[in-house]
Amino acid sequence: MAQRLSAVLVALVLGTAGCGSSQPAVTVPAPTSPLPTGGLAGQQVTVYPMTLVVAVETLGWSDEMSPRREALDRADSIIRALLLERSPEVTWILPAQLLRASRRAPGMLADPYRMGTALLRTPGLSQVPDPLRSQMRTLNGVAGGRFALVPASLVFVEGPDSTDLGEAQLTLVLTDVRTGRLVWRTVARAAATDPWTALREAFKRLTPGLP
Predict the structure, then answer these.
(1) How far apart are CA 13 and CA 162, in angstroms?
(2) pTM value?
(3) What is the chain written as a DSSP string?
(4) What is the pLDDT at residue 105?
(5) Interatomic CA distance for residues 190 and 187, integer angstroms
(6) Bridge partners, residue 188, by sequence
(7) CB of 83 within 8 A of CB of 199?
């Protein structure tokens, strides 16, 4: 009994010492989950436009990030091209098509370029909140497709290992617009000497097995 109690006390002391350690914890990013195109093959999936692109000032990429609308459009263009090139098994309904659908009933359908889709970048979110949920459901009802792929945010930070590279962190979610449930979420990462190469390389992580 005494030996058992002693062992418990030693474990408690060691645990306390570990908790008080001054060494910082190392957080390893979760691996990128591939696009779930196998279950979406042959289906229509809407692709919402990017509404949030930012870069830390220390990268010196402010010129690449402005004007803001041009940066957003360039990100959309890269994502569109890579989706069509690397995942042709899905019928993608692209942002320009969504915009045309929204203009069929102005005042009743939300403009996809002005919707609050960036809030879906929140880690741990499992349900699309209203009013975004009802906006997406209504717009998808006109444009077609039960599922929506949302590039929720594109953030550029300093690259790993103190290099001169900048790292793209692209947060993507897939939502079932009928139920509002987020069925898939990932963050794709890659580093490069310019933002758009970093974005391309990050997106390629979503389709492993292709060059």
Answers:
(1) 36
(2) 0.84
(3) -HHHHHHHHHHHHHHHHHHT--SPPPPPPPPPPPP-GGGTTTSEEEEPPP--EEE-GGG--TTTT-SHHHHHHHHHHHHHHHHHHH-TTSEEE-HHHHHHHHTTSBTTB--GGGS-GGGGGSTT--BPPTTHHHHHHHHHHHH--SEEEEEEEEEEEEPGGG-S-EEEEEEEEEEETTTTEEEEEEEEEEEESSHHHHHHHHHHTTSTT--
(4) 82
(5) 10
(6) 170
(7) no
pLDDT on residue 162: 61
| 28-48 per-position pLDDT tens digit | 778 899 999 999 999 999 999
Residue 5: predicted pLDDT:
32
Give Cβ neighbours of residue 80 (< 8 Å, ≥ 6 apart): 47, 92, 94, 95
Q: Provide CB contacts within 8 A for 162, sequence distance 6+.
A: none
Could you give the CA distance from residue 10 to residue 186 in angstroms, rounded to a whole number?
Answer: 41
Contact 129, 115 (CB under 8 A): no
Q: Which two tokens stand for residue 6?
A: 């002693």
Q: Which residue has the tokens 């093959």?
A: 41
Model pLDDT for residues 142-180, shown as the tens digit of each residue: 999 899 999 999 999 998 876 778 999 999 999 999 999
The pLDDT assigned to 164 comes to: 72
